[in-house]
Amino acid sequence: MVLTALTMEAKAIAAELGWTPADQDVCIQVIGLRAGRFDRGGLGQFDGVILAGLAGGLDPALGVGDVVCDATREKPWGDLPLRRGKIYTADHLLATAIEKARLFRETGCLAVDMEGGIVRAAAESAGIPLLNIRAISDTAGQSVPQRMVNWVDDVGRARPGRVTADLIAHPLLIASMIRLGKQSRFAVRRLAEAVRQVVQSPAPV
C-alpha cells in the first residue's frame, strides 16, 4: 500500500508507476494532511506500507529534491541507495528556519512531516513494515510563509479565494509562492522516482 497526504503526490506516483485503480499489486490512497483521512482498517492485508510525500528539511546538508527515508524494519525494503535517518512528525507546519534549526539540534532528525508518526503507529499495530519516503520541498534554511498552509485544503487542492485575498493583501508573498511551487514540483518528481525504485525492486531473500 502506498499512502500520500496530497493528491499531487499520489498522481505523480501513479504516473511514474503506470498505475491504475485496477492494479492488484499496489494500492494508492490519499490520507490528507496530518493523516486526517487515514482509514486504518485493512492494513493487515498488505505486505507493507509506503508513506510517500514532501517534507521540510531539518539537516542543513539536504537540498531541494533530496530523498530521505525512515523504515520500521530494514530487511523488507532491500538495499536501495536511499539516505536513511529519522523523520520527525510535527502537529503543525514548521514555518521558520529558526524552528527547523531548533528541532534539528534537539532531535537529530533529517526532515519533518505531519503524518509519519500516525501511520507508523498504525503499521506497527497491524504488524507490517512501514517505509516513510520524503522528498525535500523546503530546506532547513528556508522559511515558509505560514499563511500558505491555508491556501490548500487537506489533500492539497487550491483554495482560490483565500489565495487571491492573501496575495492582494500581501503581494510580497507572490515570489515565495512561485519559488515554493517550483521546488514542490521538482521534489514530487524525485519522490515518484524513489517510490518506483522501491516498488520495482526485488524482494530480499
Question: How would you characterize this protein structure?
Answer:
It is a single chain. This protein has one domain (2-144, 186-200): Nucleoside phosphorylase domain (Rossmann fold, 3-Layer(aba) Sandwich), CATH 3.40.50. α1 runs parallel beside α5. The model has no long low-confidence stretch (mean pLDDT 91). Strands 1, 2, 3, 4, 5, 6, 7 and 8 form an 8-stranded mixed sheet that branches. With 205 residues, it is of the alpha/beta class. It starts with a strand and ends in a 5-residue tail after the last helix. It is 35% helix and 18% strand.
Summarize the structure.
By secondary structure, the chain is an alpha/beta fold. It has 5 helices and 8 strands; from the N terminus they run βαβββββαβαβαα.
Q: Which stretches are poorly predicted, pLDDT < 50 over at least 5 residues?
A: none
Q: Main β-sheet: number of strands, strand sense, barrel status?
A: 8 strands, mixed
Strand-residue fraction? 15-25%
What value does the average pLDDT take?
91
CATH top level assignment: Alpha Beta
Order of helices and strands: EHEEEEEHEHEHH
Instruction: Give the domain tally.
Output: 1
**Which assembly state applies to the chains in this document?**
single chain
Tally of alpha and pi helices: 5
Radius of gyration: 17 Å
What fold name stands as the CATH topology?
Rossmann fold
CATH superfamily: Nucleoside phosphorylase domain
Query: What proportion of the residues is helical, as a percent range?
Result: 25-40%
Global geometry: globular
Question: Which structural class do you get from the secondary structure elements?
Answer: alpha/beta
How many runs of DSSP E, i.e. beta strands?
A: 8
